[in-house]
Fold this sequence. Notes:
Largest sheet: 8 strands, mixed
Distance between the termini: 65 Å
Order of helices and strands: HEEEHEHEHEHHHEHEH
Structural class: alpha/beta
Shape: globular
CATH class: Alpha Beta
Low-confidence stretches: 1-20
Oligomer: single chain
CATH superfamily: Alpha/Beta hydrolase fold, catalytic domain
CATH architecture: 3-Layer(aba) Sandwich
Number of helices: 9
Strand content: 15-25%
Number of domains: 1
Helix content: 25-40%
Strand order of the largest sheet: 1-2-4-3-5-6-7-8
Amino acid sequence: MEWLIVVAGIIVAINAAAWLAQDRLIFFPQPVASTAHLPARAAALTVAAADGAKLRGWIVEGSAIPAPTILYFGGNAEEVSWTLADPRWPREWTIVGLNYRGYGASEGSPGERELKSDALTLYDAVAARDGIDRMRIVTFGRSLGTAVATHVAAERPVAGVVLASPYDSLAAIGNHHYPWLSVSLLLRHRFDAQRDASRVPVPLLAIVAAADTIIPVERSRALYDAWAGPKRWLAVPDADHDSLGAAAAFWGGVADFLAQR
C-alpha cells in the first residue's frame, strides 16, 4: 500500500511541475541581436495591442502598388527579422511581421490568448494602411505560428494561407512527446488549430518536412484534413523541422502558391 502512495505522489509531483513549467516549455523568447541583415526597404513597425502593450517588428515594402501582403507568424523560438529579411520572398509582395510578446523588443509575456488577439490587431492595422491590397492578404505561419495564422484566417478575410510545419493542436503534440503526462488536462495554451481550420474556406499550402521529429507528419496531416477550403500538400524530402525553410522546394512552393493569389 505504501508504494502506491509513493507512486501517486510522484505522478502528482511530475504533473504539478509540468503545469508550472509549461510556459517555459512552449515559449522561447529571442532578443533582437541585430537589424543589419534587414533590407533597406524594411521599416520599423509598432502596433499597440488591445491591452496597450507595444508590439514591435517590421514591414518590408513590396514593389507592387498596391501591394499584396503576407502577415508572417513565427515559431516558438524565432525572432522574426531573420525570416522577413530572406531575399527569396517574391519582390512584389509586402512582408509584415511582429515579434510575439516578450520576443525581440515587444512588450509583455506570451500566451495563446494574447498571441491570437495580437495577430488580429496586426491584421486590422495592416489592412488599414495605404498601399496595401486588402483583397490579397495572405497569412503565413511557421510551427507554433501556424495556429496563429490559421486563427486570423478564420476571423478575417484573407486570400490564402501558407503553413510550414503545421499541427492540429498543441495538446496532440504534447501527448506525442509526453505520453506519461496528463497533457490534455494540464495545458493552458492549447492552440487548437484544427477547430479554426474547419472554418477557413480559402486555399491552403501546407509545407512539411519529411524528417520532422518535432511535429510528426500525422499531426500536420490531421490539420490538413480538417481544412475546409482547397488545399495543397508539399512534403520536402530530407528536410527536418529546422532545415525546412532553407530548402529550394520550400521557396518554390511558396512562390507558386503566391503567384496564384
